[in-house]
Amino acid sequence: SSGINAEWPLRPGNAKMEICKEEPLNPIKQDVKKGKLRFVNNVFPYHGYMWNYGALPQTWEDPSHVDKNTEAKGDNDPLDVVEVGAAVATRGEVKEVKILGVLAMIDEGETDWKIVCIDRKDPLAEQMNDISDVMKLMPGILEATRDWFRIYKVPTGKPMNEFGFNGEWKGRDFANKIIKETNGFWKNLVLNKGVTDDVNATNTTVKDSPGNISPGDAADLLNRQPKASSTVPVVSSSTQDQCFVNRTVSEAVCA
Prior knowledge:
Helix content is 18%, strand content 23%. The protein contains 4 helices and 14 strands. Strand 10 (94-107) and strand 11 (110-119) form a beta hairpin. The chain starts with a strand and ends in a 12-residue tail after the last strand. 29% of the residues are buried.
């Protein structure tokens, strides 16, 4: 697909940055759980995130919708995006990407699609048009990506994630159907009141939205935010430790 933009809250590293959907204008912030900043562990043989990890704006996985493919409700977030190009994105950067495929992850009973794409400026982009091209030109990256998503929460005491379609990566056409569907969910969210109390739909771009505000009002809102602290938060040294996970499901099952 042409003209698809993705935004990058995350870059290779360990800090778990997210689009904060609960706050006005949905800023990028480090996720907090039980008062502590969240990080992803280094799970052997990986170190933090191994690709640019972001989201597709104007998409929403509706938690009231049960997906017919996964038989699970949406996770209440924008679509996650894995970008496999060579250039490391800067936090908050917007890239125009080519959609290549999608993985149906099921995270604690919720559908959490993982779109795979490539930056249109990447040297390999012209040769990449579908998931089969990723398999051909980047052998091993899809297997490693699926493995990472399966095990990355295990060090925190969570179970391994599961996958629809027995872990099979679906192609570009299927991915575009998921994008179109979740864009429809997003439109319903921003154009109507009372769809959910979990997402703040304040915005400056959707004129018919009940949450639309002027750029001036948005600037005033941002100016009222507390100034950034110069204090560096304490990070547990365990975040940098190498964790080892016994794969209870053979990778060959999902090949």
